[in-house]
Amino acid sequence: MLVCALDTKGEEAAYVKSLLAEAGLNVRVLDSGVLGRPAFSPDISAEDTAFAGGVKLAELAARRDRGEAVAAMMRGAAAIVAKLHDEGEVAGIIGLGGSAGTSVGTAAMRALPLGIPKVMVTTMASGNTRPFVGQSDITMMNSIVDISGLNRISREMLGNAVYALIGMVQGRREAERRERERAAAGAAGAALPDKPLIAASMFGVTTLCVDAARAYLEQHGYEVLVFHGTGVGGATMESLIHTGYFAGVIDITTSELADDVAGGLLGAGPERLTMAGRSGVPQVVSVGAADMANFGPPDTVPPHLRANRLLHRHNPNITLMRTNSEENRRLGELIAAKLNSGSYPARTAVYLPLRGVSSMDAPGEPFHGPEEDEALFSTIRAGLRKDIELVEMDCHINDESFALAMARKLVELIEK
């Protein structure tokens, strides 16, 4: 599947289509252009795309409202691509464009399940790609030059993107073929039945805890998917919980909520820490990395925070700020409120590590802060509804005993 505005990117789209066809792939082209004539006849016209988005193309062209036009084509492209996938017609998708084309192309890609190859060649790839990628598995490729005609660089970039998509599509087909052959032969190498999935949240400063819990859960017949607490990671985890992927959740690292409270960059949005409680998925929750909010390079930290707060340069691109007692009180209130709002309190347990919440929050480490931690613990202690189990352990979050206690509790909740 190729998604592109053929009124402005027709030459480039024709080049991409020819490379895909040379590899033996059947290519369907969806036109998302609004104002001009397409450079060649697509399989899905701009009129069809606009209609699927709930509006006539002529009306969009007459109004000349770019924002409205892009939104309509995003809706239409997503609807058409999702329908084609349901009919077994989409093995992979590629898009090309600037900001508008990327908005439309990635909307179509986000409508597809995880695992379907998705490549977006775009001038927007080296900036903030979160609005385009969302919780999907889109590969964003920097076009280097604007997608405006074919030249020695654009040919190279478009070719590499096409070859990447070809490799993904053909590789998946070959893997599926081999698996069918093994299954038909009853071979020992055939895939085992899928194990129940567990979602886990992690930051670098809680890795030891997550690794120990993951090892225990895997030994007991579960497969663990670990999500990095970068905002997108937590949002993706919540989205997959909502869609029924998981038998349970071990939410060790709730640091994205600390970013919400303290003004950091890695918040995961209002859905964070809500979906398991709404859906009845067993969950064990802790407060990993609640001692920090995340900012970019040091000069991106707001001046009033640079002057008055404890900062740590984690790497050239990330500066950490120690959360203070007031922020930890607000964080405790937020965690309690989110868990209290769930409909299945008996399927939730909260674990507090009283000797520190991250590898940086330990004696001799830069964020060691018993007073700040106690502000968090006492607020959760006071605010959490009484029918949610609360366990306090006199250990550090990265102690193996704490990790195993959380993992055992999750297995218990699932098996109930």
UniProtKB/TrEMBL annotation:
<dbReference type="InterPro" id="IPR008322">
    <property type="entry name" value="UPF0261"/>
</dbReference>
<feature type="domain" description="UPF0261">
    <location>
        <begin position="2"/>
        <end position="172"/>
    </location>
</feature>
<feature type="domain" description="UPF0261">
    <location>
        <begin position="195"/>
        <end position="414"/>
    </location>
</feature>
<dbReference type="Pfam" id="PF23189">
    <property type="entry name" value="UPF0261_C"/>
</dbReference>
<protein>
    <submittedName>
        <fullName>Tm-1-like ATP-binding domain-containing protein</fullName>
    </submittedName>
</protein>
<dbReference type="Pfam" id="PF06792">
    <property type="entry name" value="UPF0261"/>
</dbReference>
<dbReference type="InterPro" id="IPR056778">
    <property type="entry name" value="UPF0261_C"/>
</dbReference>
<dbReference type="InterPro" id="IPR044122">
    <property type="entry name" value="UPF0261_N"/>
</dbReference>
<dbReference type="InterPro" id="IPR051353">
    <property type="entry name" value="Tobamovirus_resist_UPF0261"/>
</dbReference>
